[in-house]
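FORM 7B: Structural annotation worksheet

SECTION A. Query
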Amino acid sequence: MPVHSLYELALLVTAWKLWDVAGARWWLVGALAAHFTARAWSFTYFIPKALRFEKLGDLTEAQKRDARRWANLSRCRPMLELASVISLSVVVFHFATR
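SECTION B. Predicted structure
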């Protein structure tokens, strides 16, 4: 997704430029950690499961439970990304207004 690439570029450039600023560093660590966690979780769990669900025909009860669990857990990913965006925004807005 192009938006992910742009966000990751902004995150990396901001980390590179402001890493030496102690007040910014912890916000950057939070942004990087939340974003990395969301992306890693997507690639290791959500994407493979989604591809598997797409290939299945009629679901068994166990597969339906697994699909419901996947759907419930998928609601957590936007919260991780939101935490990352908020952390990066704090850094950018704080240091852009100086």
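SECTION C. Observations
The chain has a mean pLDDT of 90. The chain has one domain: 2-96.

SECTION D. Sign-off
Analyst initials: ____
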